[in-house]
Amino acid sequence: MMFRTRKAEYKDAEAIADVHISSWKSTYHDLLDEKDITNITYENRLALWETVLRIQKDEQCTYVIENEEKIVGFINGGPERTKRFNYDTEIYTIYLLDEFQRLGLGADLLNVFAEDMKTKGNNSLLVWVLKQNPTSKFYERYGAKPVGEEETTIGEGTYQETAYGWESLDGLLDVLKKNKS
Predict the structure, then answer these.
(1) What are phi and psi of 10, to 5 degrees?
(2) What distance in Å separates the CA atoms of residue 102 and residue 171, rounded to the nearest whole number?
């Protein structure tokens, strides 16, 4: 099966919202209280993605990965939001449908995002992951190191998050390239 990664467009909002909801529910099923999982709806994700894709700020980017039939994943990010860490850019969201995980597509999304952020003059990258989320191993595989923790509120619940960072986008791109070959 062939996959293509490209910049997201406004017309992709519905497909991105579908991937977001489906991946959200499967990823966080065992990590969050049920009421906090169901608090995130297709309608509010669609409104979010329509807004994000309509505005398209220069310092941010959103990419999708698709096969011949549909969008199967996406990544979105921009400037590091907390300003508490010595990282200049951040992944805000990255999701793949379950059946398309462990095929190297997450690495493809990470690669195109890191390249875009580097082109924009950024040098480092941060991503937040729920503490018990097994996907943290994905980031560690590509050289990310834990750099901080904090509590976050999702719905009505409070959960622990870990910040993972790459001090160098060049270093991340090198690791991605080596793992690809």
Answers:
(1) -55, -40
(2) 22
pLDDT digits (tens, 9 = 90+) for 122-137: 999 999 999 888 889 9
Task: Determine how β-strand 4-7 pairs with β-strand 61-66.
Answer: antiparallel
- How far from the centroid of its chain's Cα atoms is residue 169's Cα? 16
SS3 assignment, position 18: helix
Using DSSP bridges, classify how beta strands 71-79 and 89-96 pair: parallel, antiparallel or unpaired.
antiparallel
87 by DSSP, 3-state: which?
coil
Q: Both tokens of residue 106? A: 């997450």
Three-state secondary structure string covering 19-68: HHHHHHHHHHCCCCCHHHHHCCCHHHHHHHHHHHHHHCCCCCEEEEEECC
Of 82, 20, 99, the residue nearest 52 (C-alpha): 20
Strand partners, 163: 128, 148
* Separation between Cα atoms, residue 114 and residue 120, nearest integer Å: 10
132-168 pLDDT tens trace:
888 899 999 999 999 999 999 988 889 999 999 999 9
